[in-house]
Amino acid sequence: GMNPIQKGIIRANCFLKAKKFEEALGLISSLMSVVSNTRTSELPFKIDLEAELLYNKGCCFRENLESPQHLQELEQAYQCFLDVTNMEDDVKREGFLIPHSLCQMAEIELELYDLESDPNRKQER
Fold this sequence. Notes:
Layout: H1 4-17, H2 21-36, H3 46-63, H4 70-86, H5 102-116, H6 120-124
Helix pairs in contact: 1-2, 1-3, 2-3, 3-4, 4-5
């Protein structure tokens, strides 16, 4: 069966699809603290779950177009995706997240930012 964290991630994804961003972010934040406070021995795929949660958090920030802080949230999303790409070497499971590797998807998200955003950011990376 699925562990409660995986069930929570699925729930958060449903919130995200339904554009219930507050609920999704709240759930993702509490799941992130559960995961970070769990020993790797108890949670063999801890890093995978962290990457998945961070990716989903980035999606929440990016997709919440109605938010008055949307520009700051886009920056936060960018940072989430950047952090996910940096976790790629540590991700344990082959084929991490079917059908695509979330790390590769995060890389594509970053490329989209480069297309949409000001040219100044490119120099920072």
